[in-house]
Amino acid sequence: MIAAACAGLVTACGSTAAPGGSAASSTPAPKVSLDIKVTGTGTTAKHWTLRCDPPGGTHPDPASACQVLLKAKHPFAPVPKGIMCPMIIAGARRAVVKGTYFGQHVDTTFTQGGCQLARWTKIGQIFN
Question: Which DSSP helix (H) or strand (E) runs through 6?
């Protein structure tokens, strides 16, 4: 009897859809949404998107890239001022990353050497 009353109520009201005419989405918004462009001398330029938590996007391996990114502590922090920088150039690659990371705006560039080497090493796997 209760089931019949509930069914009748739904029929009388028209629908269980959310206001605005469409049902609420069951897919959660990603906590990380990035646009990544990687360039370098002698290499083919790459461009893809990466979404994490849940993983997705056009990145070749979003699950692995998200695992690296989410384990890194402050992956987009700038290089601290006044530090000694290694005179090592590990490569000529450059990555431009834009988007959001847990609600924070990201617009930064990584290079594969000098003062940026530590930053590249921390999350460089997401650029491959």
Answer: helix 2-13
Q: Does the 28-127 domain belong in CATH 3.30.350?
A: yes
* pLDDT tens-digit readout, 33-67: 999 999 987 778 999 999 999 999 999 999 999 99
Provide the 3-class DSSP secondary structure of residue 9.
helix
CA dist 112 → 7, 52, 63, 72, 89 (Å): 62, 24, 23, 17, 6
Give the mean model confidence (pLDDT) for residues 69-98: 87
- The residue ranges of every structural domain in the chain are 28-127
Amino acid found at 45: A
Extract the tokens encoding 51. Answer: 């979404």
